[in-house]
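Methods — Computational structure assignment.
A single polypeptide chain was analysed. Its primary sequence is given first, followed by the predicted tertiary structure written as structure tokens.
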Amino acid sequence: MFNTLIRQLLLLLIATGLVSCALFYLGIPLFIGIPMGLIIQYACYNAFVYAVDTYAVITSKKLEVEGLKQAAYQGMEVECPCAQRNRQFVPIRLNSSNYYKCKQCSKTLSAFTAVETVLVTEPIADTSLQDVENLLDKIK
């Protein structure tokens, strides 16, 4: 921490010295050049921080928009229970009710989701007929 502070102070003095020397060669006295060097350095630092913050905000907004686009894919195509049987894509949320209006009959509907379990099977690596018959004999 102490090394960082010394390094930053040294960079401040070097940059201010370079700017004030450049201004001195342009005819501006040192007692005006040194404060101007500090002001120029402060302005450049603030511009850099503002640019980095703006870039971070823009990147964050892009990621937020991408997240919303991905959330839009979480839905189902459902069929209206009316006589017209209109099919439409409805976004599905797992943390709230899924109400939507039918585009044809304008009735308010609700979509329910269900969870099912299935048995996972292992594929048979060797599919020769003799091995399959031996496997079936072992099961019986």
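Note: Residues 14 and 20 are 10 Å apart (CA to CA).
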